[in-house]
Design goal:
Blueprint (H helix, E strand, L loop, with lengths): L1 H7 L5 H10 L4 H10 L10 H13 L2 H15 L3 H35 L7 H10 L4 H23 L2 H6 L3
Helix pairs in contact: 2-3, 2-4, 3-4, 3-8, 4-8, 5-7, 5-8, 6-7, 6-8, 7-8
Amino acid sequence: MEEQLAELFGGMPNEVITMLIAMIPIAELRGAIPWALAAPPYGGGLSWPWAYFYAVIGNFIPIIPILLFIEPVSNWLRRIKFFDKFFDWLFTRTRKKAQKNIERYEALGLALFVAIPLPVTGAWTGALAAFVFGIKFPKAIICILGGILIAGVVVTLASLGVISFLKIFI
């Protein structure tokens, strides 16, 4: 999938493509860092520090607008039946996925939820979870950024094979 996205963004610098891939829900860091580290023509060919840096920046960019506008946008769109059902589904799904971590550990739980680089976790879902669980903007920003930084380290280490190498000793 990341290769098709990179083709779509063709002609742009690899650093920008890395940021754009990281901004996309579901792909986020999990797609951006492996793409950035892969050698051309299959990836960006960036060094690991730059791949990490641009992916983290790209993953964080949409979070502030999401946190600022999710409530007014969802309230406005809920006047339309389709969107009301969509937001009910989205918020119920988010609550179900994040409830165990966030209700138990609150802010730390949000950071850990974002830090786990698995499908249906990440910064986008973390921002929705912060809204659903009523975590205030400043605390949510810090927790989500912390989670993004940790997830970036995990994905970078996994992409470089360090985590697989460490399994030999554990």
